[in-house]
Design brief:
266 residues; five-stranded parallel sheet
Length: 266
């Protein structure tokens, strides 16, 4: 009987020890959350190949596809050409397109010539070349075409390349519209001073394209100094960014090209 009592007491002592140990044990650490899988990075898109300034090409976006806005504007100009009854075409980039902000001057200076404005902002020589090879001059024979293009090439192309692109445009206009007189404007001044890199490039290109003047079909005209002060800086209140014009700048252009254009429109 005594042995049974001792065994029972030992069992109670062991059970109590186990219970105490369970109550005194620290709580288990929470399981660490498995981090979410990081999505695989998209492969870097290779840079687009450069567009040579004398090879026709549409304006493209980062994906290499033609820009929708560029194509839409081009198609608008093709539609205008199909309507015909055009006396003079103004062809170029945003400086030409900007005439829409000086409509009163445009109408007064050129309205009698049945003008159309085929300017698209950001265009380079290769873009204009593509446009006129794809319908903008088809079926029309204007008396004159005013061309000013090349400043958007000056950030990456050399003067010789820019001049080559302008030469190709002139040659294409001559092929498409053999009876049209071309008023080839020198690339306008750009930037704060004569030493501004883009302006230096443009001036070098101008020296080359001036030789395209043949006195019969192509007439080169440099009116750049009319926009500048004696020190080579822009005149006050004619440009919002030392490149594009406000109406006062367009008035200077209209006055400068007006006599020669009138002569070519006879």
């Amino acid at each position: 009987m005594k042995n049974k009592s001792l065994a029972f007491a030992a069992a109670l002592l062991t059970s109590g020890s186990l219970l105490f140990a369970q109550q005194a044990a620290p709580p288990a650490a929470p399981a660490k959350a498995t981090p979410a899988a990081t999505p695989a990075a998209k492969p870097a898109q290779p840079p687009l190949p450069p567009q040579p300034p004398d090879v026709p090409a549409p304006k493209v976006g980062p994906d290499g596809a033609p820009q929708a806005g560029f194509i839409a504007q081009h198609e608008k100009y093709v539609a205008l050409a199909k309507k015909g009854d055009i006396g003079v075409v103004f062809l170029g980039d945003s400086i030409t397109a900007g005439w829409v902000g000086a409509k009163e001057i445009w109408d007064k200076s050129f309205g009698q010539y049945k003008p159309v404005n085929f300017g698209i902002g950001g265009d380079r020589t290769q873009h204009v070349l593509w446009r006129i090879q794809n319908g903008e001059l088809d079926g029309i024979s204007p008396k004159a075409l005013v061309l000013m293009i090349g400043t958007n090439n000056s950030g990456g192309d050399k003067p010789e390349g820019i001049a080559s692109g302008i030469t190709k445009i002139v040659e294409t206009v001559r092929q498409k519209c053999p009876n049209t007189k071309i008023l080839l404007l020198a690339i306008f001044p750009r930037g704060p001073s004569p030493t501004f890199p883009n302006r230096v490039t443009n001036e070098a290109a101008n020296k080359i394209i001036s030789k395209l003047d043949d006195g019969k079909h192509v007439f080169y005209l440099d009116i750049g100094k009319k926009f500048l002060k004696e020190d080579g800086s822009f005149k006050d209140d004619i440009s919002k960014d030392l490149l594009h014009f406000v109406p006062a700048g367009y008035q200077i252009e209209a006055d400068a090209i007006g006599p020669k254009l009138a002569e070519l429109m006879k």
